[in-house]
Each structure stands twice: as structure tokens, then as C-alpha cells.
């Protein structure tokens, strides 16, 4: 190999080595603990809890790159600004730009919730507040509380809690939630808890609102509300303050104590403070709680109902059945014909158990097209037109085409509960019937049991016979003993069933303890799906017995029935009426077969 070739070879090898080195892709070692540390505040401009603020921009500097997560739902500003501020990230900083003139001598709180997260693992800086004052003083009072659903007593998450200064701008206090924006606002967490800090030491009106259109006004019929009917006073509950934890401050205890003292001085608090650690790695301090007996506020949220009766829905089914579904129960109503003039009764009316659904069974000899007016409580609710598809009773009937009478019973899989009667429900009202040939067997022939209709149109009836436990029964209804309004007759009906054993059931006995015997309470037994199994009205000094209960988990709910109408009623804000009080028993009953459970319950 000559010299020139050697030189080329050396150059080639060096080039190859260089290419291999440059193309190598360094990979970080795999594994190791996951980063769960949230962003750490290094500096705030202006500093947190500054006074005499007159600028238009706030900046928070962090030790890592950050981003904003769900800011629209997380950021709460008190008092609310007329114009939405522009909040953005800039590298390792969050910048807030304010586009309006701030109020004089006012403490502003920017509550970020969990909106600020690191850019890699989305670890949130929890419950961060940026607070400043445009005056010489920093307001330091606070309000805490909880918002729960008035009916099921579950905490309400994401509810806006609003404070108003009463007796201003000539707006009546009751109208403030409808006409005026609040001066302070917060939002509940998943536990229903809320906190409003940096308040002036004056009375406030408080309202909690499920703000559907995010305008801080109670202006939609489907917005839920909670309120306290008297003005509230805030209290001093202590304070936590973020001190940016730069390395120099963390390493130098003297610097840290000086920083704490400066913040305490700036917010005019007692300098006796306690240091606390926090997962944010920012140093915090808090004023010792000077009001340990403070009782958090309780607000119970409800949806108001429009008291105006309405027909929610009307429809035709089964050829000649008109169904009216009303907004509220109604015991006095009329359905008046407008385009026809029947000589005799033209319909049969049936109501459901709650009196808010009316079934109008139209007689076959009525016209196919009907126009009627529906009157409730002496007021015409609506004028309605219906087209029917009826069967003419005078026409020759081909029973093979018209079908047979349909029915259902409360017998399930050949079983029936001991405390129930056998119930048979026809699809249509019965026009004719003869039950004299019905046979009831209990081991041997017993005879024909008494039959009781439970509705006005003779569609639902029961066999009034006491059932014994562990007995097999047979019920025979002969062919063609019933005919409904559509001319359909029944096939032979043979029902074979047996009762459960007494040992299959459990019993719960509730012994109410009443602090006021003049008030009416209702106690409800609820199944795991919160469906009412049974309810009873409490009588003084009388236990409530819930018998024949099948094994399952049950809950107890009590309702203070203020108007004694036998059901829970919602509230009305402008009428200063809270929703009726509800108590949920604090433990669940895991009921076993053949068990007897007794429980005292104080209702007050």
C-alpha cells in the first residue's frame, strides 16, 4: 500500500468514527421515581399580599416550565372583574394582565385552584392564591362553610359561593343575586367545602348558585340556589401565605424569618406565626387560629319549581287512551269537549298514585278527532286536539284479529311476598266482567276470594285473601269472564305461585326521639338505589316497624314535613322558604334474613 493510499485510509477511518459518534443517540437511564413535585414559586412581582398596588400586570416565576390547565373553571377572582383578565404562560412564569381600573382601597384575590401545573407530569400547585390590595390595608377576615344537596344531603361540587354587600345601589337585598354581581366569589370542592378569604369586617349576604351560564346572576329557571336568610359576619380564621422559597432563603434561617416578618408586617397581622411545610416546597406561614370555636356555614341547595300548573306532555296511545302529564299533582280538574257534544259520559278517567298523570279512556262511540280543553283549579291550562284509532263496539268483531285481553300480575317467578295481595292489571278498563267462576286453591279448593278494584275505571283489581307462609297457591280465572273497552276477552288464566317463608324476611324497628312533638316527620326506608321502599309518618311515642324486608342494604331518610302534605317540598328564594329539612341516618343497615334490628333516632 503506497503512502497516498495510507493517507486516504486514515482519513476514511477518522470520518467514519466521527459519523458514528455524531449519530449516536444518547438515552436517559430508564426507571427511577416519577416526578410528583409541583412547580415551586421563586418570585412574585409584585410580592404576594402587597399593598398600594396600582399596576396592570402580575407575574409569578417558577423553578420549572408551567402550563395552565382548565383555567376557565379553576380561576376565581374576588371581587369579580368587569373584564376577563388575560392570563398566559411565558416560559417558567405565569403572567396576569388586567385590562380595567381597579377599585380603590380593595383587597383582590386571584384563586387559581389547581390550574397551574408543570409541563412534564402536570403536577398541580394546589389552591394557590395571589392577593394584593389597592389601599393601605389588607383585609384579613374569612368565611368557611359547606354546600350540600337539600334532598339527598350529598356535597355539591363546583358551586359558586357569592357574597354581596347589602343596602347598596338602591337594590333590595333579596334582588341582589338577580341584579348585581357579587363582591366576593369562591367555588366548592368535591367535599362541598368553600372558603372566602381577605374579606372586609362587615356584614354580607351569602348565596350559593349552580351558575349555568357563568354570569354570577340567578337568572335561569334551571339554576339551583342555596341561601342563608340573615346577614353573616366573617371571622378571623388564620391565614396561610406563600413565601417564595429561593435557595438563599431556604439555606439562611435568618433570611426566612425576616421574609416572614415582612409579610406579617405588610398584612398587618400579629407577628406571632407558625411555620408549616407544604408539598409545593414553598415556605408557608400561618397566623395561629384566634377563633377555634368558629362554626362553618351550612347551605342547602335546591331547585325552585315554578308554581304555575302546566301540562308537560299529552299523547294518544292504545288507540283511544289520552294521557296528560302535569307539572304538579292535581286533584281537581276537568276535560271539556269542544267539537262534540256527548249525551252521556264520553270517557273514563284514571289518575296515578301521585295525581300528576291523568289517563283519559275515550269511549268507542266518540268521534275520531277530538278537541278538548283541560281545566285545573278553575284555570284553562290548554286547548288540545287528538286523533284516535278506536274500535267500533257495534261492528262485527273478528276475535282472531282483535286479539285477546292482555294483563299483568305482581307475581314474580312464581313467588309473592307474604304481605301482598295478588293483583291483576288489565291493559284497558274492563267493560264487562263476571268473577263468580273464579277458583282459589290452597292445597284444596277454597272457593272464590273477594275481589276489590283499586281504581275508578275498573282496570286494576286484587284478590283479597290473606296469604300464609310456605304455601303453594293456584288461581284459575275461566275463559271469557272479562271484556275490555276494546272488545277483547280473556283466555283462561291459571296462576300458580307460592309464598316465601317468614324466615326469608327481616324487620327494622325505628324508635324516633322527638324534640318537638308538634312537628310532623316522615321516615323513609331506601333501597341501595335510593328508591323509597316504604315510608311512615312519625307519631309521638310510637315505633315505626318496617316488616317483610328482603335481605339487602338499606338507608333511612327523615323529612321534616313542614306543610304536612306527606312529601318533601323544595324551597323558594324570594319567599324566604328553605327546602324542607332532611336527615340521613349516619349508618347503613346491612339486613340479613330472619333478623330484627332496632334503632333509636333523634329527629330535631
**How far do the termini sit from each other?**
108 Å
Query: Which CATH architecture of the largest domain is right?
Result: Sandwich
What is the average of the pLDDT values? 85
Question: What characterizes the major β-sheet?
Answer: 5 strands, mixed
Low-confidence stretches: 20-29, 247-253, 258-289
Number of strands: 45
The level of helicity is: under 10%
Which secondary-structure class do the elements indicate? mainly beta
CATH topology of the largest domain: Immunoglobulin-like
Fraction of residues in β-strands: 35-45%
Apparent shape: elongated
Number of helices: 6
The top-level CATH class of the largest domain is Mainly Beta
Please give the domain count: 6
Rounded to an integer in angstroms, the radius of gyration calculated over CA atoms is: 37 Å
Main β-sheet, spatial strand arrangement: 28-37-35-31-32
